[in-house]
Amino acid sequence: MKRTKSFLITASIAFLLAGCQLSNPSPQIAVKPTIDVPPPDDVLETPPEIVKKNDWNTILSPFVKRVLDASSYSGGNHALFISDIQNRSNEYIANSQVNDALHQLVNQQNTFAVVDRETVDNAKQALGIAFDDKLVSRSKMIALAKSINVDYVLFTTIYKIPNESGESTISMELLSAQTGEILKRVTSAEIQSLQNQSTNSQREIE
Question: 55: which of 16, 25, 31, 71 is 20 to 30 A away, CA to CA?
Answer without folding.
Answer: 71
